[in-house]
Amino acid sequence: MGDNYKLYSILGVEKNDSIETIKKAYKKLAFTYHPDKNKGNIEAENKFKEISNAYNILNNEEEKQKYDMCGDKNYNNGSDNNMGGSRNPHDIFEAFFGGGGARGFGNHFEQEMFGFGGQNKKQNKAQSFHRVFSLTLDDIYNGVKKDLTIILKKYCCECHTSCPDCGGKGIIHQIRNMGIMQTVFQIPCNKCEGQGSIIKGKSGCTVCKGDGVFNKEKKATLIIPKGVDESYRTAFPELGEQPKTKNTIPGDLIITIEIAEHKDFNRKGNDLYYNYDISFINSIIGENITIPYFKESIKINTVIFGVLSNGKNYLIEGKGMPILNTSNKGNMYIVFNISYPKIKNTEKVEELHKLLKEVFI
Ligand SMILES: [Zn+2]
Ligand SMILES: [Zn+2]
To answer: Deepest in the core among 57, 240, 284, 307, taking most CB within 10 A?
Structure first.
């Protein structure tokens, strides 16, 4: 590809690669070099800026065309030079992942993938917290209403002080060598997240008693509708991480669920599958069986299905899981496992044959 198309090699792709390939390459590198995963590593930070800038240009059809024509030497994207970039790499990252806290994924890495939080582009948003509730199939059948008490760790608003790193300006200057030139970049201050002030407990503060933080209890009611599956998620706005700076808004508390296996049923969508062991003889003449169905029980004689086949699904209509947002239910299927006996008395087989012919069509 030659040295004149550095943006492609930065992302490890070829000039003819599709936009999908470019996107994939950027995603992988952006995660690897994100400053929050490489705290204090200037090299990683620069790499993050470099890949963000490359992606920003190559993801823009018009700019990509221009760049493909001109190459590094002659391309100008409107900023001082194409390596400097005109967009904040965090904005590029956010735009790619559909919003999410601009800073810090750390323990909450998965939130970026969920696309929650950070609807507001101008204001910083604190981290969203992520909590998983373990539920039973009975919970899903009945729906869940749970009162929660959430302890928020609040940062004291009375105890702001000017950021020592940036002197309260929220930005710091970084000098970078660009060939023979030195260029000064303004980047948001890391310590105060570009806000200019940080929280520092002040002795005598009546709100936080000088700690800078205090706990606040919040009540919330978690309602999970009947019939949801494990893809269900909901969020309590503002009950996630609390702001550490003045212009940050609180993060959300994101709730997801996991559903434990049930001792009687396998669930497939809205349907329930029930396995029942039955003898060969009863599979022909029928057996009274009782199926536990949450708080009910279903009593049937298997003769309603005729002579049973091993492993086949037998339908009981409307006895499945509630269908989300409707008053309908899925179906139940009974699967019989028939145990076949060995023939004890071969002399009687002929007699049985005759008899069977009389009984069955
Ligand atoms: Zn600062
Ligand atoms: Zn305070």
So the answer is: 240
